[in-house]
Each structure stands twice: as structure tokens, then as C-alpha cells.
Amino acid sequence: MTRIEPVEMARNAVEAAETPHASAFVTVARKAFTRFGNNTLTQNLDTETTSITLSVGDGERKASIVFEDPGPQSIRAAAERVREFLKASPPDPEYMPPPPEGQIYPVIHDSADPEASECPVEKRMEAVKGVIATAAGFGLKAGGICENDWVRTAVATSTGNLAHHEKTAVNLSFTLDMGEASSYRNLNHESWREIPWREASEQVAREALSNQGQTEPEAGEYSLILEPLAVTNLLVFLYWSLDARRADEGLTAFSDMQGKPVSGKGLTLSSDPDGQVKGVPFNPEGLPSRSVVWIREGVLENFPCQRFWAARTRREPLFMPECLQMEGGNGSTRDLVSETGKGILIRRFWYIRFVDQKTLKLTGMTRDGVFLVENGRVTRPLKDFRWNWRPLELFRSIEAAGQPVGVSSFLVPPLKIGGIKYPST
Amino acid sequence: MMKQAAKRAVEILESLGVQYGDARAETVSTEKTVFRNGRLEQAILRDSRGLGVRAVVGGFWGSASCTGFDAGSAEAAAKRAYELARSAGGKGEKPLSPLAPQRGAYKGPVEEDPFDVPVGEKMALLDRASREAMKDQRVKECYAWLGFENIRRVLASTEGSMVESDLTFSEPFLMATAVSGGDAQSRSLQDGARIAGWEWIRQCDIDSWGEKAREEAIEKVLAPESPEGVMDLLLDGIHLSLTMHESVGHPTESDRVLGWESNMAGRSFLGIEDQRSAIYGSRLVNLVADNTLPYGLASWGWDDDGVPGQRWHLVKNGVFQEFGTVRETAPLVGRSYSRGCCRAMDYSSFPINRQPNFYLEPGPDGITPEDLMAGIRLGVMIEGRGSFSIDQRRINFQFGGDRFQLIRNGKPAGPLKKVIYRSETPRFWGSCDGIADRRWFKTAGFLTCGKGEPMQSARMTHGASWARFRNIRVGGGK
User: Fold this and answer.
1) What contacts B215, CB < 8 A, 6 or more positions away?
2) Is residue A358 within 8 angstroms of chain B, CB to CB?
């Protein structure tokens, strides 16, 4: 396939719609991955899929169809089916035509790497076999996945907007374990050049070995030192909860809070689609992304807001461009440890779920490394524990933040948070 | 075309000399209508058709897929799967549990094809139910949807199997959220999907659900918060479906025990040696896997290994029996047969070890929920599913629910909200001392069980009657 093809598919779908309004969003994705577990390869897969979403409207009603075959006959058949579906739909009091022509989409630099767009199996094999060999050398078991994706998207609207985006992703995540002792790493970047699996696998092996002989933490008050991955695990829930309409309807922790403090001054969240971690230039309806500060020093400045609700509440229509960054400071997790008298160091969380959406209260477990910190040093491994916390409250007590690092589409610092009671109620 | 494509891919695999290979051709048609606050938010159709191919060379898997069923694409996918398997550089074998060549066709039970029901009728039903739910101004949000999907599958293998399935899934849903006093609480219809037709939608009586969800969401938002302490629980089948899913279904998946999911879904607290010996619960606890359950979402006729659906005990009289397996894992956990738990999310995904349908066997005839409640001095009755979280070894868990009643001295003592309970898997199931009879048996169909990397969703059904559990830590998680 050539690079123009997703754009052609989108344009062809819109032309075939034959309705007053139409938009098409196309994803052509090549996804290749190798999985491993118990120090052996378990899966090796390479697939290419196409997904075309054609949304149509007649000024009052709307309907959508998703299909895979981009051939002209298939597009015509899909258009015919969705027109029939449209006739059966009731009028939509919140009907919105596609964004008017002339939308200007940001350029996302360096989002795709030529080598990674080839999804070379040799690269995956080298990394996976290397991690397994390291694990075996340390007497550990390795499990994980090495993925390489090349994803091209395009959007077209009947109002004349047309855009294309391309990105590559290489992701190597692995767990090395022995009994209950384990450690984990997730390496990701647009290119293979930034996947330092050799160094990382040796480091993770040492971390796993140092995690043996875990004991229960003693009840008391601790500082929490959260590695960037653990911070990301919590931020995801803020990402999902930030929505203007649901807040206005009294359904979330952000209800009636725009312009007001929702957390401490240490929390600044923003999105920059062309920043250090890459976002997307448009959403499926053809709205352009832009840089936005959502929360500045604890004050809620902006909400993601769909176009109908934005028009009704006189807000700017905004969406999360699939990336989020949290402001930090200088230094590493190790530096935060060295400044801590009595603390608990946490690598990552697991199975976080809402307990109460209205207060953004979450529950979850720790996983793959919890350590006691005493007088600036990690002194012993601790058993995993369950917690029930409200992240907006946790972030009120940020005492220090390190240098932000990329974790998938998030850019986040390690954090030191003061005054946390263990056990969590 | 589907059969031809699958057959052609298998012929290519055979010509390349693979140790084992199979091809799955699949067409999926989906129709979903979603109403939010009485307004049609989403009306979407989805069509998908393609072929997934697996091959074993030198003891390693390779897998590739293509969109559509033309012969050229099928051949290319087969060759790509072979090349990927070969790229591992293996020289060994991959022992799979034995399987005689399978032949046949399975059609899931459908009395009334939901795709024949006019879309306008479906939308009118959702519109009525949503408006009923929103009749009280305190209800600020109501989601209601109907989802229908038909999946037709053909599986062919180099061992001579050629099987077909034709499955129709029907899913109703409605949830109302009430806001009052700075709080927001929801109540929802959680019976979930079935392999069934429009008759399942009729049976759920969605028209009555608008009022029920509204009244119970308001009751909940106005209710006092949970008491804290150690007390008894009386749990309904819809609630238990999730507790069972997380604390029984996942830890008894054989791939977790083998460490194949150590990086994401996790391992299990069970070991291979625990089969037929580990105490999982009290003697009342019988957990039966059943991939022949007619409306069960995992009843496909054959799984993606071509193994027919089966019924077996996961737990018998409180003792763990055996894992759910696929052909590849069965020999590794000491079994000469697969239990038929191999399923992929779609044609482009690699099939993995998934949970079967399974249920908690009801208690002896004549036992009612009231009988169980009468034996509780202080406790909470929970209906439906809510918050849920469990550690990666599937022991340490915390669950919420959808509707709560305080029980005091054997009687209901008023609604509650924000109830959670915590326990550990063997301790929890060991505390079960009463199960209502089959009249109270309910099932819930899950469409979105997430597992694997990249994440795949899978479908299965769980069921139970009301059951009583003693001395569980309950609280609001303040």
C-alpha cells in the first residue's frame, strides 16, 4: 500500500455517502508482536487490518457504519446500508454537522520511523531472545511482549476537510520473576533505536532478585515514592474523568470546579500533541488537536468538551489528543529516595478500579516491587498491598517531583507524596 | 467462500510441511443503538470478514491474517504464518493434546432473529425505557442500549478438522444515575448478553427497567453509607457472577499457572500440583464449567483449537479439580485432553486460554434467600455488580455491588450505599455456608473479559443462586 491510500479510502467513503453530511475516519494498522512466557516464545504474529467508519447525517438524523473492505463495491454497499439505518433513526436534538471547512491540523513531527514501519521480525526476535537469555542467566523467568505497530489514519468530511497521520510504535514490556519476587519494565518509543533492552533487562533482573523475602509493612505513616509508571497508572483515571458535560451534570469529581482548585499546586497536567510524547492531530470527526493546559498548579482550567456541549456552554470544543504530560522537577526516583526518612517506594499499580466516581476514589494493588525506604536508602522489600486512595487528594501532598519521563503516551515524573497511612482503609 | 478460504490456507500450510496448522474464517455483523438521556447517541453497524492462520514450525507458533476471503490473500496469510513460525529458529516439536478430526456445524439457539426486528422498534423501546428512567429530575444520566451480533466461523486444520459455528449474541443494557446531596449513584440491568435472539430482549422486559432503575438509583443515592466491620453477606447470582469470574475463572486458567501471562494478566495462586487436592471452598461449593450451556456466551460448538464444548467440575465439594485448558497447555498441566477453552477475540487475534461458562451449583430444593437471611444477625445483602479489583495471583480482592440492603436480626433493615467487601479467595469460598435452590438461579453474560497482550476481549456466562458468606470484612473504603 502507498501512503496515500487511507486518504483515498476516506475521500471515497464520503463521496459514496450521498447524504447532506458525511465524515469518514480510516485506520490502516499493521501490528506485529512476539509474546513470551516462562522463558520461551509463545506467540509470533503479524497482521494488517483496515477499519473505515462512515458517519452520515441528513441535518436532523445521524448513523454510522464500520467496515473493513476499502474496495469500491464494499464502500457503495456500506453507504447504502448506513443510509437505510439513517432513515430509521429518530431526529437528534444535539445534531452537529461535520466541522466547517478550513480546519487546520497541527503537524506532528517524528511520529513515524521508517525502520519501525517495516515491523522487522528480526528486531523482535533479537530483543525477546535477549531478555529471555538475561532472565535465564539470573535464574529468573521472563514473560512479556515485544510489539511493533505502524498505524496510518485519515479523516475526510463532506465540508471539505481532509487529513492524514502516520505513527510507529515499538514497545517492549517484560516481567522477570522468581516466586513472589518480580520486577517489570516497559520500554517504548517511535523507533527501535530507543529501546535499550540489554541494559534494562539486566537492571530488571537485579531488581527482581532484590525483591525476595518480602515482609508486611508495619502500620504507620509513610512518604510514598511513586515511580513514573505508578504515577501514570493513577493519572489515567483523571484522564478518563475529565469531561465537561458529565461534570456539568453533577456526575464527576470535577462538577462545578472549572477555574477552582481540584488538587494541590504540584499538579499541572497538559497535552501537547507535538511534544516529547506524541499525540494525534485530529479526532475521528475531523476536529484538530492543539496544546492545552487542563490543570495548572491544581486549578482546573480546561475540560475536554464535545462540540454540541461546547456550543451550549460557550466553551471551546476540545479533546484529549491521546497524550498527557505532568509537570515535574529535576532528579530521579533515586534522588527522591535519598531525601526520604521513612517511606514506601512503589514501582507500579495493578487492577485499579473506581470505588466512587463522584469523589474519584480508587482501589488497587501494588505490583512488581514495593520497598521500604529508611533514612534515604531502600532497606527491604515489602509485600504487595491493597489501597483505597483519592488521587486528587494524594496530589495535594506532593513534596517533590523528579524529571518527567515517557511512559507510553504519558510524560510523567516520579513523585514523593507525604503523610500516607498504612494500611489504607 | 469461507470454507474455501480456510481450506486453501490449510493446503498451503500442508505444502510447506508445518507440524500443525489451522485457519479460521470469520464474518461478523453487528448492530448497536445507544441512547443517552433519551437521545440516540450512537447508531452503528459493523461488518468484519477475514481469515486468521496459525502454523507450528520447529515447535513455535506463527500467525498472520488477511481481510476478506480471496484465495490470494489466504495463501499469503498462510505463507506469512509459516515464515513467522520459522523465524523463531526452533528445531523441536510442540506437543498438542490429541484430537480426532472434527466435522460438523453448530448453530446457537435463536428463536427470533434480532436482525429481522425493525430498527425503529428497537429504538422506540430504548426511547421509552430511557424516558421512564428520567421521569424524576434527580436522575441525571440514563444509558440504554441494544447490541446484536452474528458471528459465523469456519475452522479447518491440517489434522482434518472442518467445523462451522453460527452464533447470534443479543445484549440489552440500561443504567440510571441519580444525583442528590453532592453524591451520584447508579443502578443498572446487568443480566448481560446471551447467545439468543430477540426473545431474550423480550424476557428482560426493558420497559419495566426504566422505572426500576430510576426508583432504585434514587433509593441508593439517598441511603446511608455502609457500616464497617466483620459481618455476613447475602449475595445474588448477578453479583456472584463477577466474584466467581475474578476469583475462580481466572486463577483456574492453565496459561496463567504456566507463567504465560506473567507480564500482564498475571499468574495464579494455584499450582499444577493443586489439581484434585487444594481446598478451594466449603463442601457446599461446586463450580461447574459448561461450554454446552445453550445460551452461554462460550458455547461455540468447538473452540478455536477445534475441541468440542464440554462440561466438567472446576471445584467439587470444595476441592479444586482441574484447570481450563487448550490443546497446547493440557499436556503441560498433566492432562491428556483439552477442556476446549481456546478462543480468539477475532480472526486477526491469536487464540488464547479463556474462561469457560461456569456456575455455582444451586443448593438443595426448598432453600430460599429468606431462609439464608434468617440466619444473619448483622450483614449486607448485595445485588448486582459494582467496583472490583483483585491482585495478579487472584487472592486478595475487593468488590462493591449495585444495590445494597442492611440485614439486622434476620430481616432487611433499609437500603445502603458505598458498600465494599474484602477477602481472600480460599477464605471467601470457605465461608460459604448456604446456597438457595435453583428457583433463584441467575446468569450474567460477559462480553468484555480482558486478557492477553495485546488485550483481547472474550465472552462467557456465569451463574449462581443467592448464597451466604460468613464473617467478611465490610466497609466503605474511606
Assistant:
1) none
2) yes
Shortest CA distance from B58: residue in chain A: A41
Cα Rg for chain B, rounded, in angstroms? Answer: 23
Residue A166: is its pLDDT beyond 70?
A: yes
Q: Which residue in A122, A177, A251 is closest to B262 by CB distance?
A: A177
- A308 inside 8 A of chain B by CB: no
- pLDDT score of A2: 40
pLDDT for position A424: 79
Of A65, A145, A367, the CB nearest to B392: A367
Residue type for B408, please?
R
Handedness of CA B62, B68, B74, B77 (dihedral sign): negative
Q: How many CA atoms lie within 13 A of B300 on its CB side?
A: 27
Evaluate whether A53 touches A66 at the Cβ level (below 8 Å). yes
Task: Tell me how far apart the alpha carbons of residues A294 and A239 are, in angstroms, rounded to a whole number.
Answer: 10
Count the neighbouring beta carbons within 10 Å of the beta carbon of residue A237.
20
pLDDT higher than threshold 80 for residue A3: no
Residue A423's pLDDT is 87
Across the range A3-10, mean pLDDT stands at 82
Q: What is the 3-state secondary structure (H, E, C) of B125-145?
A: HHHHHHHHHCCCCCEEEEEEE
* pLDDT average, residue stretch A232-239: 97
d(CA A52, CA B448): 22
Can you tell me the distance from the alpha carbon of A219 to that of A342, in angstroms, rounded to the nearest whole number? 12
Tell me, rounded to whole angstroms, the distance of Cα B249 from its chain centroid: 9
Report chain B's mean pLDDT, rounded to a whole number: 97
E strand or H helix that includes residue A30 = strand A21-37
* Chain-centre distance for alpha carbon B355: 7
Tens digits of residue pLDDT in B320-363: 999 999 999 999 999 999 999 999 999 999 999 999 999 999 99
What 8-state DSSP symbol labels residue B273?
G
Please indicate whether, in this complex, the C-beta atoms of A350 and B422 are within 8 angstroms of each other: no
Please give the Cα distance from B21 to B60 (Å, whole number): 11
